[in-house]
Design goal:
Blueprint (H helix, E strand, L loop, with lengths): L1 H32 L12 H13 L2 E2 L2 E3 L6 E2 L16 E3 L3 E11 L9 E5 L11 E6 L3 E4 L9 E2 L10 H9 L3 E9 L3 E9 L5 E9 L6 E6 L3 E12 L10 E7 L4 E3 L10 E6 L4 E4 L5 E4 L7 E11 L5 E14 L2 E8 L5 E4 L14 E6 L4 E4 L5 E2 L7 E10 L4 E12 L2 E3 L16 E2 L5 E10 L9 E5 L5 E5 L5 E2 L7 E4 L6 H4 L3 E9 L4 E9 L5 E10 L6 E5 L3 E5 L2
Parallel strand pairs: 16-21, 23-28
Antiparallel strand pairs: 1-2, 2-14, 3-14, 4-13, 5-10, 5-14, 6-7, 6-13, 7-8, 9-12, 10-11, 11-12, 15-17, 17-18, 19-20, 20-21, 22-24, 24-25, 26-27, 27-28, 29-40, 30-39, 31-36, 31-40, 32-33, 32-39, 33-34, 35-38, 36-37, 37-38
Length: 573
């Protein structure tokens, strides 16, 4: 009896305990669902504690794998309106000897190849911080740029032509819509970053791209994604041990030389001058090599007249070990001494525009032909590379550029006549040293339903297409709608809605900028859209245009300004 009673009492207690737990759980559920109706007396740092716990759980180290917290799961506007570099992902740090693994879904407008993911690798995790520098930017369409170590020849891809029309890029744009992308950036102890990008499209096509470049061997590097008419759904981020401990050495496969002299005066033994040798290696990379590492297997006789052949050889691997040599050759003419110079064809630019007189103007020699008279009475055209040119005084009226030939025993000069005209404003320095986003024109208001035209002459270092004037559209408070370049490129939320047309010949674009008359017309359509048109007349008289139509703006608050780099403009109207 006692035993039975004891068990019954024990069972009753257990039942009551279970009921209490159930009731408390029910109250707990109600409280979670209606949390906003209650006030909790919690420590003031509760949220920071929660965040730190979440970060700790996200950055779990499970042996070889360290999972990273993704703070921004959606990168960019989901309507693809985020323009170039307007939105970036989290910064993911990669210590030496670690590999960063990222997974995300790519979305883009599908308009251009570059309206997809873009990867940047930098030295810091804040692009607005002092000292921030990018090692490189790699686009998903197998293109990119970077510091002096960047080598486009090391970007490789296997993008297929899936529809058989001999155009891989229309297939690429289709595959990238909704593609699942895996990016791996291996920060090797060798002081290199190795990138492998694999995109699997919803159509089953797999695209693979690789790249490698030197980075710091000791300091952390940072990777992040950049929008350009695109957005990304971030899925995974974690670190693994590096897979590369040794970089395989590669042999040279070819050598080329540029800037070699065409003519050398008899008695002058310098047959190399200011030439540059570039070696290409078996991995597709190339680099300029020091003259001390070059050997000349055939040295010309510079004591006799006539055409001479020089054979150049290089015999080192990428890591400096001895290898089988690669060779090339060039020819030059040994001539009599130069006794006189004459400008036989004027340069393309004979009238320069200027505004400030704080420094001299660089003389543009494009189109210039200088003929030499030699000591034996013969004549011949000298290359501009064999001549020296003075700058032009920044003063209104007739001016001259001094042209010199420095021979073995004497220096001969002539002059080129020029005319200088003063403008009403200027953006950029005469020596092309102006950096991007450092100098601007004044802001010009563009009233609703009206157009504003800025007329200018442009001068450029001729290195890149973008060393030319860019146009900013913005509000009075400096909030930007968009920025467009002269070479059919732009960014910004407003730019994302534009339609671009032009008739450029990009083969000659960069070299033709200097001396161009450019009229930039900004039209406020009055319907919260604006158009921009460049009408360009090269110094040769050839004409071209660039137009952007339908940029989204606030028609009640529209201003425009000019910005540039590696160039300058003189505003004349």
């Amino acid at each position: 009896m006692y035993l039975i009673k004891f068990n019954f009492m024990k069972t009753t207690k257990l039942i009551r305990y279970a009921l209490c737990v159930a009731v408390l759980a029910a109250f707990g559920l109600v409280s979670c669902e209606q949390l906003e109706t209650y006030s909790i007396d919690a420590p003031s740092d509760l949220q920071s504690r929660i965040d730190s716990i979440a970060d700790a759980k996200a950055s779990v180290n499970t042996g070889d794998t360290t999972y990273l917290n993704i703070i921004t799961p959606i990168v960019g506007a989901e309507d693809n309106s985020s323009g170039w570099n307007t939105v970036v992902s989290d910064y993911f740090g990669i210590p030496t000897n670690k590999l960063l693994h990222l997974e995300f879904v790519n979305h883009g407008s599908g308009v251009n190849n570059w309206n997809n993911w873009n990867l940047a690798v930098a030295n810091m995790d804040d692009r607005d911080a002092d000292g921030f520098e990018q090692y490189f930017v790699l686009r998903s369409d197998a293109y990119g740029w970077g510091n002096d170590d960047f080598d486009l020849g090391l970007v490789s891809q296997d993008y297929p032509d899936t529809d058989g029309d001999d155009d891989i890029w229309n297939d690429f744009r289709e595959t990238m819509q909704g593609a699942y992308v895996t990016l791996e950036i291996d920060h090797s102890v060798t002081g290199n970053a190795f990138v492998t990008a694999v995109a699997e499209g919803t159509n089953g096509t797999v695209l693979t791209m690789t790249y490698q470049q030197p980075v710091s061997a000791t300091a952390d590097i940072y990777a992040y994604l950049i929008t350009d008419g695109s957005w990304f759904e971030m899925k995974e981020a974690y670190l693994l041990p590096s897979e590369i401990t040794v970089v395989e050495d590669v042999a040279p496969v070819s050598i080329s030389v540029t800037g070699t002299p065409e003519f050398v005066e008899i008695g002058n033994e310098d047959f190399w001058g200011n030439a540059v040798a570039t070696v290409t290696y078996a991995d597709g990379s190339s680099e300029e090599v020091d003259t001390t590492d070059i050997t000349f297997s055939v040295i010309p006789d510079m004591t006799t007249l006539g055409e001479k052949t020089v054979i150049v050889a290089y015999n080192k691997t990428k890591q400096g070990e001895l290898s089988e040599p690669v060779t090339t050759l060039y020819t030059l003419e040994v001539t009599n001494s130069v006794t006189a110079l004459e400008v036989t064809t004027l340069p393309n630019i004979t009238e320069y525009y200027f505004y400030t007189d704080t420094m001299d103007i660089i003389f543009n020699t494009r189109g210039l032909v200088v003929t030499a008279t030699y000591s034996d009475g013969t004549t011949g055209v000298l290359s501009n590379e064999s001549l020296q040119f003075s700058t032009i005084p920044a003063a209104e009226g007739a001016q001259e550029a001094v042209i010199s030939y420095v021979g073995a025993t004497n220096t001969v000069t002539t002059t080129c006549p020029l005319t200088l005209t003063k403008g009403i404003g200027q953006v950029g320095a005469y020596d092309f040293s102006t950096g991007w986003w450092t100098q601007f024109s004044e802001d010009y208001a563009v009233p609703s339903g009206e157009s504003t035209t800025i007329k200018m002459y442009a001068y450029s270092n001729g290195v890149n297409n973008w060393n030319s004037p860019s146009t900013i559209l913005r509000k009075a408070d400096m909030t930007e709608y968009g920025v467009v370049r002269m070479d059919n490129f732009g960014w910004g939320d407003g730019y994302a809605t534009s339609t671009n047309t032009n008739d450029w010949n990009f083969d000659i674009f960069g070299a033709s900028i200097s001396g161009s008359l450019i009229e930039i017309t900004v039209t406020n359509n009055g319907d919260n859209t604006a158009d921009i048109r460049y009408d360009v007349t090269y110094a040769t008289g050839e004409t071209h245009f660039q137009e952007y139509a339908g940029i989204t703006v606030d028609s009640s608050d529209l201003n425009t300004a000019i910005v540039l780099e590696g160039s300058y403009i003189v505003i004349v109207e």
